[in-house]
Amino acid sequence: MANYGRGGGRKLGPVGRRRFLALAGATTAALTTPPVALPGSAAEPVSGAGLALAFRHQASAIAIGRRYLERFPNDPHREVLGEGRRLAAETDPTVARSALRARVKQDFERGDTVTLDGWILSRSECRACAALALTAGAADRGSEQ
Amino acid sequence: MIRDFASFDGAEAIACDLCIAGAGAAGITMALEFAGRGERVVLLESGGLEFEETTQALYAGGNLGRPYFDLDLARARIFGGSTTHWGGMCTRLDPIDFAKRDWVPHSGWPITPADLDPYYARAHPVLELGEYDYERAEIAPAGTEFLPFREDRIRPKMWRYSMPPTDFGQAYRPQLARAANVDVLLHANLVEIETGDDAGQVTAFRIATLEGKSARVRAKSYVLALGGIENARLLLNSDRAIPAGLGNQNDLVGRFFMEHIGIIAATVLDLEGNGWQHSYDDLFDGDRQVRCGLTPSFEMQEQKRILNPMLMFGQRTVARTNSEGYRSLAEIRKQIARGELPGDLGHHLYNMIIDVDGLVRGMYEKVDSTVYIGMEAEQSPNPDSRVVLGTERDPLGLRRANLDWRLSALDKRSVRTLLELTGQELGRMGLGRLQMEEWIAQDDNVWSDDIQGHYHHMGTTRMASDPSQGVVDANCQVFGTANLHIAGSSVFVTGGCANPTLSLTALALRLADRLKMLLA
Prior knowledge:
By secondary structure, chain A is mainly α. Chain A is 55% helix and 6% strand. Chain A is globular, with a radius of gyration of 16 Å. Chain B has a six-stranded parallel sheet. Chain B has a four-stranded mixed sheet with strand order 2-11-10-9. Chain B has a four-stranded antiparallel sheet with strand order 6-7-15-14. In chain B, helix 12 packs across helix 13. The mean pLDDT of chain B is 95.
C-alpha cells in the first residue's frame, strides 16, 4: 500500500497544483482593478481593488474563478457577487482573508463544496474567485473601450 | 508427513477421513487443526516446495473483462500458496460488511461478526499477528498524533502486519512433517471432484501429476481450498453429475467475483507542511507494525448509500523501489556515509548511467512532498463479474478459467464520496485541499485502465442461507453435496475493505471445528 503508483505522472487538471499553491500562499500583489458593474448584477458595482486584496495571488484566483464560471454557469450571479461584495467591503486584506477563511471552514464543515477539476473546494472560495474573475473580465473590457 | 506424489509408491486409492485440496493459508490452517488428532488427513498441493514454472502455468487463463493481472501471476502454486508472496496486511471485516445493506444488492452474510470473532482471535497466532486488538489508541505507538477527523463522517481503521509476513510453507512445514496423521502430497493436482449420480456426496478427489501419475483420494469429508478462482474452476470442471458443474445447479458458481479496487485516487495539497500525514504511514512499535486507513463512517455509508471503501495516505516510492539507477545511488551514499566506497562501484555507476531516467525520477520522489491517496475500495457483489471456463484446456485436461472482472457505478460513487468526505475534512481542518483524479469525479461507470486489484479474489462460491443465493451454506458446505466444503475467500459474500487473509484464516478455523464435530 505504501508503494503508490506504477510509474507515469499524474495528470493535473486545468487548475493545476502550482496555480493552487499560488492561491494558497504567495505574497500579496496589489491589483489596480477599477470598480466595475458586473454583468448580470444590480447597479451597485463591486470594488475590484477591494476584492483583489482578499487574495494573495490574483492571477491564480482569477484562473480558478474562470474555471468555476465555466464549469458552473448556472450558479446565480447574485451569489457570486454577494461573495465578492462581502470581501470588497473590507479594506484591510488581513480581515478580508480571515473572513473568507472562516466562511471556507464553515463550507467544509457543512459539506458545501464543489468539485472543480478534481479539487474539493469550498463554495465560498470558488465564488470569491469567480467574483474576482468577473471584475477582472469587466476591467479588461473597460480598458479595451 | 510430507511426500511427493510423483514418487509416491502407494495404491491407486488413498483412504482418509478428510481430504483438503490446496496447501495455502486456508488449507494449511485446517490441516494444522487436525495435526496430532485421530482423524487421518490428506492435504493435496499442486506445487512442490519450490517454485516450478510448469506448475505455475496451470493457473493461466483468459481475460474477458477489465484489465487484470495475468492469472498465472496472480497466485502462487506452491506449498504455502500465496502466503509465500504476500504483504502481511491484516484487519477484520467490519460489522457493516456482514449486514444486509438495502443499498447494496446481494449484500448480507448468513453469519454475524460475533460468529467469526472468536476465530479472528484464534487466527491471530496462526498469522503471527500479535495480540488480537485493533483499537487505535491501544496499538498505535505512543505519541502518534492522528488528525481529529469527525468520526461521524470518517472512521479510522487499523491494519496490523504479519511481520515478516508469515510464509505458511516455511512456518508450518516442520509441524506438518511431524504430524503422523497428516499426509501432505506434493505435485498432487486435483483434476476432478467425483460424485454419485445425484451429486449428493463426493466419492473421491481424482488427482494427477503433470507426468501422468494418477490416483483417487477417498475420504469422509472433502474441502476445496484452492483459491478464489480455482475453487470455482474445479467445481465447474467437475461436470459429470451436473452438466453446469458441481454446486452450480443455480448458475452461481464463478459469479460475484470481487476484488479490492486499487488506485492512486488523489493527491493532497498540503498547506500546513507539518508532517501530519506521517501518522498515517506504517507505524512501528517494537516488533509491531500497524497502519491507519480511513473509511466512511457507518452513518455516512448508510446516509449516502455507499460501500465501505478505504484510503491511505502515502508517498510515491515507485522509482525508488524499482529503479536500478536510484538503488545504486542509494547504495553508494550508504557506503560513503560509513566512510567506505562500494566494492562494486563501477557496477553502480554503470547502473546510474544506463538508468538515468529512473535515477532522476527517484530523486524527484525523494523530495516530492506530495501526499498521495491510495485506495483499497470495496467492490459490490455483482453477478456479472465472474469466472467462467474457457475452451482451452491445461495439460491436465481441465478447461482454463476466463475472468470477467466488472465494476459498477456504485463502486465508483463510493470511491468518489470517500474522497469528497476526506477533502472536506482536510479543508475544515485547514490542512490542505484534495484533488481527485478527474475521471473519478465523473458520475458514471467509466474507470481508468490504471486501476488494479490487490490480488484478492473473493466471492465466486459465496455463502448464503438459501441455495438460490449462494454456493455454500453458513457452514461452508456446498449446497446439495453433503460432504463437500469450501475454505477460502471464495465464500465471502462481501469483501469490505479488509485484506482477506485474516478473515479466510478465521473461516478455515471455523470450518475445521465444524468438521471435527462431523468426523467425530
